[in-house]
Amino acid sequence: MQLIKMEKVKDGKYLKNYELTYLNKAGREKTYEIVSRKELERVEDIGEKVSGMSIAAIHDGKLLLLREFRMGVNKYVYNLCAGMMEEGETVFDCIKRELYEETGLSVKKVIDILPASYAAVAISDTKTHIVFVEAEGEFEDHTSENEWIEAAFYTREEVAGLLQTEEWSSRAQMVAYFFSKNLFPQY
């Protein structure tokens, strides 16, 4: 597969749409559409920058999950606390800000930060870290009027039940599965 052309076709407020033209393995052109949170000026820019993070937070042996309304699927889903890095923000600053904004909690301890990976590899070059933290504090709502988020801590047994009955984001589902099986990083 050889990328031969990249063209921006739409410049939205948060997402930019691109058409990528490839020579496929049969030597024919194939046009593929992607979205990016970043401005892509060169082919080498695709997937180059980290956009944000997903935060797997624990407290007293329980996993933090957000039940939130996601406009993209028009449903309430279980998700991890997550967000995009602001210009000039460090990874740690983003972790603290996003956890506080979405839950009111603070970071007691960072357990691990995984290298950035692609969040939606079939449609986007968005790259995010998965971060494991120990959280502390009390729940408070600091979200915007355009977000509906209900944050709570869940036991392994509660998480196992939710996995069978509820809608999930894929990253949250994976973290929840490993947590329910007691295969979560120790703190």
What does this 3D model show about the protein?
The longest helix has 13 residues, at 91-103. Strands 4, 5, 6, 7, 8, 9, 10 and 11 form an eight-stranded mixed sheet that branches. The protein has helices at 91-103, 156-165, 170-180, and strands at 2-11, 16-23, 29-36, 50-59, 62-70, 75-79, 81-84, 106-113, 117-118, 127-136, 149-154. By secondary structure, it is an alpha+beta fold.
The tally of strands reads 11
Which structural class do you get from the secondary structure elements?
alpha+beta
Unreliable spans are: none
Separation of the first and last Cα atoms: 43 Å
Main sheet specs: 8 strands, mixed
- What spatial form do the alpha-carbon principal axes imply? elongated
Instruction: Report strand %.
Output: 35-45%
Evaluate the radius of gyration. Answer: 18 Å
Q: How many separate helices?
A: 3
Order of helices and strands, N to C?
EEEEEEEHEEEEHH
Residues in helices, as a percent range: 10-25%
Report mean pLDDT, rounded to a whole number: 95
Sequence-ordered SSE layout with sheet pairings:
Elements: E1 2-11, E2 16-23, E3 29-36, E4 50-59, E5 62-70, E6 75-79, E7 81-84, H1 91-103, E8 106-113, E9 117-118, E10 127-136, E11 149-154, H2 156-165, H3 170-180
Parallel strand pairs: 4-10
Antiparallel strand pairs: 1-2, 2-3, 4-5, 4-7, 5-6, 5-11, 8-10, 9-10
Helix pairs in contact: 2-3
What is the structure about, briefly put?
This protein has 187 residues and is an alpha+beta fold.
Q: Top keywords for this entry?
A:
3-stranded antiparallel sheet; alpha+beta; 187 residues
